[in-house]
Amino acid sequence: MDKRTHEEQLGFLRTLRRERAAAFRREIVPYFRYVFQSGFGLFASAILFAALIGYSDLIRAVPDHWPAREVGVVVLSLAALRAPLRTYMRPADPVFLMAMENRVAGRYVNEALRRATVAGVLRTLAASALYAPIYIRSPQTSELADNHPVVLLAVFLALLAAHNVYGGWRERRLASRGWRLGLKAVRTLLTALSVAALLLYPMPAGVAFAALCAALLNLLWRLPAQHALPWERLIEEEAATRRKWMGFLSWFVDVPSESAKPAYRRWIAWTGDWIPWSRRWAWHFLYAKVFLRGETFGALWRWVVVTCLVMAVSGSALADAIALGVSAVVCGLQLSELKRVRFVETVDTLPLSPQEKLKAAAAVARAAGLLAVLTIGAAGLATAKLGAAPEGADPSAWLRPDYGLAALAFGLFWCGWWMPRSIARHRDEDDE
């Protein structure tokens, strides 16, 4: 192949990715007008202002017993670990681009890796900047901060984030799913240990330990067989990203639906078998199984876990109440996805009443929403004093039953009545 043809192919791949990214933006950006018209912008702004006020109060006087070390390790580890990769791959690409596989792996994917690395570094630097005032002023970490220049610490954390982006790419290339999951778990553990070493131990020792962990991961990534370019993996990830965007936008406006990929989830899918095996409960069974094995359940339980962690470290009754109320709203919106479930055409041949479909969807959403709200409320009660002021201080900062009961009542009302009622309401477009 002559040099001119080579340059033409590289230019084609560079233009292809740029055009696909622009097409994706043109597809989703117009829907955000409806998102902001729904009041979500004001709601998000209120949450942001409340978070800024809470953050300002926290850095002004960090309580003695506030878990600054644990929070720093968790937050900075999560910031450094996240390594999404947008390639905009499509199912037909292996057919039309296979002849240029080496150049796709080079020019096309390297551009995506570069953007992902920049995003990961900036995200970690932002998290470091937010944590630095706490690290300096907290009684638990102030002495450590004296020997840890925050700028130098942020640089090493940014390098750790860049290494995780590269590690995510190496793991995507692995041929064995078992190796991929195992090495991802090892990378998660070593990243958390590296962040802890950088924050809590002398700087030279922490840097040496982080470098040793990175070298170990580089060695482990060489052991299993790997693809030159994991076409199917990249296509699946791109499809999952599109489903998440469309799922979020569908809370506010009707958007073209993306085909969902079911998950096994043997640890929870069996609970759907509790539903009686009879014609009366058939729609309930179908919706329960779709929910438990679909992406809505994954988003729901991840949100519940994050809310529980936030409440565990907040140390404020008002912050806990706000977190519970916001989480209840988000859970209800996520569960509204059940109304948009579309079964295969052959389901119409079953001897089941179509008028019962939305009622069954509402019942499943009600059960899941109430369980989520009660789980968050129980977690908030169990961890009420975990991030609170020292013993003997005014308990009104962390123990306010009126705040908690009001937030819990709102959550039960929203997820137990309002959203199920909205799901069960029939509209003309539901027949389409």
From TrEMBL:
<feature type="transmembrane region" description="Helical">
    <location>
        <begin position="116"/>
        <end position="136"/>
    </location>
</feature>
<feature type="transmembrane region" description="Helical">
    <location>
        <begin position="403"/>
        <end position="419"/>
    </location>
</feature>
<keyword id="KW-0472">Membrane</keyword>
<protein>
    <submittedName>
        <fullName>ABC transporter permease</fullName>
    </submittedName>
</protein>
<dbReference type="Pfam" id="PF05975">
    <property type="entry name" value="EcsB"/>
</dbReference>
<keyword id="KW-0812">Transmembrane</keyword>
<keyword id="KW-1133">Transmembrane helix</keyword>
<feature type="transmembrane region" description="Helical">
    <location>
        <begin position="34"/>
        <end position="54"/>
    </location>
</feature>
<dbReference type="InterPro" id="IPR010288">
    <property type="entry name" value="EcsB_ABC"/>
</dbReference>
<feature type="transmembrane region" description="Helical">
    <location>
        <begin position="300"/>
        <end position="333"/>
    </location>
</feature>
<feature type="transmembrane region" description="Helical">
    <location>
        <begin position="188"/>
        <end position="221"/>
    </location>
</feature>
<feature type="transmembrane region" description="Helical">
    <location>
        <begin position="363"/>
        <end position="383"/>
    </location>
</feature>
<feature type="transmembrane region" description="Helical">
    <location>
        <begin position="148"/>
        <end position="167"/>
    </location>
</feature>
<feature type="transmembrane region" description="Helical">
    <location>
        <begin position="66"/>
        <end position="85"/>
    </location>
</feature>
